[in-house]
Amino acid sequence: MEGAESVSLSLPRDVERVAGTDDGASVLATSRKDFRVRCTSKRAVTEMLELCGCFVQKLGDALPEEIREPVLRDAQWTFESAVQENVSINGQAWQEASDNYFMGM
């Protein structure tokens, strides 16, 4: 076409090409980003979990007594597990981080 512009496209910086499996075709893959909440003190997160535990216990006030304890135990475990899976301590997973490491900002 006369007068048409030439356009050059490039991949965004967070996308890379990886080889296909069977047909050898290339597919785009997004680099994995760490979306966890970044923290610097495992001890501080543990203290926050303990503070929030009071709120979880208050939720149990509305439950019938015969199911209260197991439901609250399950809710507390679920909450703590979710927090631990979604925070990083100085870039490390919860299980890998030292209990008393703190880096000042």
Structural account:
This protein has 105 residues and is of the alpha+beta class. It has a domain at 37-96. The chain has two helices and four strands. The strands form two sheets. Strands 1-2 form a two-stranded antiparallel sheet. Strands 3-4 form a two-stranded parallel ribbon. A hairpin with a 6-residue loop joins strand 1 (15-19) and strand 2 (26-30). The radius of gyration is 24 Å and the shape is elongated.
Features:
two-stranded antiparallel ribbon, Kinetochore-associated protein NSL1, Mis14/Nsl1, alpha+beta, 105 residues
The helix fraction, in percent, is 25-40%
Please give the count of helices.
2
Measured by DSSP, the beta-strand proportion falls in 15-25%
Widest sheet: strand ordering:
1-2
InterPro entries: Mis14/Nsl1 (IPR013950)
Protein name: Kinetochore-associated protein NSL1
Would you kindly provide a brief summary of this structure?
The protein has 105 residues and is an alpha+beta fold.
Task: Please render the helix and strand layout as text.
Elements: E1 15-19, E2 26-30, E3 37-39, H1 42-59, H2 65-85, E4 87-89
Parallel strand pairs: 3-4
Antiparallel strand pairs: 1-2
Helix pairs in contact: 1-2
Protein name: Kinetochore-associated protein NSL1
Organism: Eschrichtius robustus
GO biological process, one term: mitotic sister chromatid segregation
